[in-house]
UniProtKB/TrEMBL annotation, chain A:
<feature type="transmembrane region" description="Helical">
    <location>
        <begin position="87"/>
        <end position="114"/>
    </location>
</feature>
<feature type="transmembrane region" description="Helical">
    <location>
        <begin position="202"/>
        <end position="220"/>
    </location>
</feature>
<dbReference type="InterPro" id="IPR000412">
    <property type="entry name" value="ABC_2_transport"/>
</dbReference>
<dbReference type="GO" id="GO:0046677">
    <property type="term" value="P:response to antibiotic"/>
</dbReference>
<keyword id="KW-0046">Antibiotic resistance</keyword>
<keyword id="KW-0813">Transport</keyword>
<keyword id="KW-1133">Transmembrane helix</keyword>
UniProtKB/TrEMBL annotation, chain B:
<protein>
    <recommendedName>
        <fullName>Transport permease protein</fullName>
    </recommendedName>
</protein>
<feature type="domain" description="ABC transmembrane type-2">
    <location>
        <begin position="45"/>
        <end position="280"/>
    </location>
</feature>
<feature type="transmembrane region" description="Helical">
    <location>
        <begin position="81"/>
        <end position="101"/>
    </location>
</feature>
<dbReference type="InterPro" id="IPR013525">
    <property type="entry name" value="ABC2_TM"/>
</dbReference>
<feature type="transmembrane region" description="Helical">
    <location>
        <begin position="139"/>
        <end position="159"/>
    </location>
</feature>
<dbReference type="InterPro" id="IPR000412">
    <property type="entry name" value="ABC_2_transport"/>
</dbReference>
<keyword id="KW-0813">Transport</keyword>
UniProtKB/TrEMBL annotation, chain C:
<dbReference type="InterPro" id="IPR050763">
    <property type="entry name" value="ABC_transporter_ATP-binding"/>
</dbReference>
<keyword id="KW-0547">Nucleotide-binding</keyword>
<dbReference type="Pfam" id="PF00005">
    <property type="entry name" value="ABC_tran"/>
</dbReference>
<feature type="domain" description="ABC transporter">
    <location>
        <begin position="6"/>
        <end position="236"/>
    </location>
</feature>
<dbReference type="GO" id="GO:0005524">
    <property type="term" value="F:ATP binding"/>
</dbReference>
<dbReference type="GO" id="GO:0016887">
    <property type="term" value="F:ATP hydrolysis activity"/>
</dbReference>
<keyword id="KW-1003">Cell membrane</keyword>
Amino acid sequence: MTGQRATQLHATELLEAPAPTVRGPLRGIYAGNTRSVVVRGLQVMARTNWVVVLTGFFEPVFYLLSMGAGLGALIGTVEFYGVDVEYAAYIAPALMAVSAMNGAVYDSTMNVFFKMNFAKLYQQMLSTSLGPLDVALGEILLALFRGLLYACGFMVVTTLMGLNLSWTAVLAIPAALIVAFGFASFGMAITSYMKTFQHLDYVFFLMMPMFLLSATFFPIEVYPQGFQWVIQAMPLWHGVDMIRQLTTGLIQPSILMHLLYFAVMIVLGLWFTTARLRALFLR
Amino acid sequence: MSTLEQPVADVGGVDHALIASRARGWGWWFVAEHRIRAMRSYVASWIAISVGSPFLFLLGLGLGLGLLVDANQGAQGVDGVPYLVFIAPALSMATAMQTAAQENTYGVFGGFKWFPMFFAMNGTPISAAHIVVGFQVSVLVRVLLPLVAFSLVMVVFGIGSPLGALLLLPIGLLLAAAVGFAVMAWVSTQTEDRGQLSFVERFVVVPLTLFSGTYFPLETLPAFLHWIGWISPLWHAAELGRGALYGAELAPVMVLVHVGYLVLLAGLTCWLSIRTFRRRLDK
Amino acid sequence: MPAPVIEATGLTKRYGDFTAVDGIDFAIQPGEAFGFLGPNGAGKSTTMRMIAATSTRTSGDLSVLGFDPADHGPEIRAQLGIVPQADQLDEELRVIDNLIIYGRYFGLPVPYVKRRAEELLEFAQLTEKRRSRVDGLSGGMKRRLTIARGLINSPKAMLLDEPTTGLDPQARHVLWDRLFRLKEEGTTLVLTTHYMDEAEQLCDRLVVVDKGTIVAEGSPSSLIRQYSTREVLEVRFGSAHNEAASQAIEGIGSRVEVLPDRVLVYADDGEAAMSAVHERGLRPITSLVRRSSLEDVFLRLTGRSLIE
């Protein structure tokens, strides 16, 4: 085949890429095509790393079984807003919040770090008509999708174990997504400052204490007042308390404060991440 | 016609026979030294995490859970001692296990694949066995710091006997060697990372930490789960640690069993690792 | 004459104190194959990134396809095909999916992208590797896939950054053939290279860049005519003796250059120059007569060799 035309479509058949139509302050950073980033992620998830995604579901379940059964036998019940709650039912919502946080942070730090520095995925995306905001939103939506899968799976387990004490527990699923959104939107921006894998250690160094101390396994009242304030400033505590109110049905007015906390976190995180992607790839 | 004089590179009196014989005896140390020098690039996060974890686990988690457990069980409730004393040795051992597993997962895989140092080392007079042992020695150095930090915190805050806290060091190193070689034996057979590397953390380290009597006596779990403890190097090390730190009841024959299990595991998986390394480097 | 596809005046890029691109002017016409020739670190890649609107210029004017890259990045990239220096393929996707997904990044409709991807695979001679994983491809195949990927949006101009660096000679020729076909079809090609033979093969016109500035401009043959002789004699006397020998050679040909490993004698008739060297009683270890290349142009312009 000699091929007069190397690329075989006739000039009249060729399609040009549509010019992005976004106007206003987002022009140049957003092309309205987040969908394609999500499609790519789902395809990779379906083809190559579904096993890894699936196994992520087990970690909170292991914690629930171990701590709920083993420690539960030693501890009995814990008081939550004036009601004595069985230990396993006390930690289950916390583990759900933690798993939302872990999934979101893992996706937006480790995975993003790899894609940024080794796979050069964002360089590829940003050499098309996509803008940095398309990429950031796409990655965050993917992290949320994964979070949704885990939240639903975990919900099934806790329901079977009888650890959901009220119908409001259903709302824990969207609540977990909100928690994940908050962490994911910030994670990417923070990852953009990292140069080596060791920098990721610092993230886990911050997450460990949050995980262990944010009223996850015991109420924060055991600490002195000053230290309680520190914990209450951390996002995970808000997530844990919010989801726990929903699964136990002991809903307090403070749930609105938790929601507001995450709303602010999400908006700031998105702004921060887009600014950082712009600085990194469009400099 | 005279023979052409071959230009000879000036080797400056280097005795190549001496180099070879020195490498035969001390190759493992050259490998360890290389890794320890490389560690300097993240010495700050290594120290921060090593020193931070005992505070976090003992004074954060241990103390908090201790209040709940002791309130329910009384001050002599778990194994005849306060809860904090009960979990202190196990937490120290769990940290040693986690660090050793992590280093061996990414260090060994990376040494073959991402930054193929092992192949470079193999190109010098150093052999596969030296690489295997030297690598593990460097991991033990890395593990030693958090172990020392844990023991120091125990001594300073009067958790258990000071002499026992000191004894936790060799026990922890033995555990790290056993876990380290075991992880290495498996990871070195993996040539491609399709996400299975994270299984070490998810399906070995986390379940072993949760189900081998770290946070509660193994007997608290249903009998059909006790086997996890028996095969878990962490359980054997934690039992030894408890005996050392607060004189938990431990028959002499059981001391032998615990130590024997760890030594055997380390020896066997060390041998397996050397075999795999030799095969992979010889091609 | 139609309006230039890309036009720059006084284009400058500074990173802190370091000036990567120092006030360069150029205009690239539609259908032209235009090259930036220069050593590593001359500012070629930075210029390419400014054209692709993935790097914001510090000062000067730049117009790409009628847009200002400073605030029309997506609009510009929608019409460009970019082939970066490192292949940057999506290793988690198969060969065919690399093309399809990339097309989706441009917002092109799925059926169209699928059809186009098959044709581009054919073009890149990768149809048999359709379902393969990317990490199993050879260097040449990866590069062809990257070029095919850059064509998915039927770009008005292709930006190729060091298109054949790191490839073996055979793979380079296959790639040049593909690029030549694109050129025949009228695609504007903008490429950077530090290989003279590549610039000579592919470029209609090129600029020689050094330390962020343009030191010469023209077609490969006109540059050689202007800055070099028709032929070059290369003689080697051994590392220690080249300098001394060059003193003795002085006067033969129109110019003599001493490099650490050899002496270059510029002359329109190389064989005659060789005889002249022998007549002076000099006995080089090896000698060779070749035609002048852009390497010689670069050496003349900067006093340095292109590849250290």
